[in-house]
Write a structure and sequence with these properties.
This protein is of the alpha+beta class. It has four helices and four strands, in the order E-H-E-H-H-H-E-E. The chain has one domain. A hairpin with a 2-residue loop joins strand 3 and strand 4. The mean pLDDT is 95.
Length: 130
Amino acid sequence: GDAGLIAGDMVAGIGTILIPPGQGDMNVYLEQLERLASLEPHMIFASHGPVITRPLALLNHYVNHRRARHTKVLDAVQAGRSSVAEIAREAYADSPDAHPGLAQDQTLAHLLAHAQQGTVRQQNGGWHPA
């Protein structure tokens, strides 16, 4: 529509948003990104970065990026990786410049989301297919 959207920390004009495990919920974040896209805003005012003048492109990029990473995390668990560090290394193989601590943090957020969905479980200090 013609309306702008004040999105706060849901998106950024530059980069992506970190979802801290234990404080954020990756499943809810993805649902809300899709909800924001359904509003078809004309522009987005984010808390960080410039005004977003192509909001649907950005929202779709965020959703596609997160869903692809979500799949890579699950693929790593299904391939037998069980520690967060191992899973992150495999899931972020396409992003060699990603900070290892941030990659592990986001991997854990994805693992917790997968656990909510019933696709993985945590057992004996590791992550395994459910």
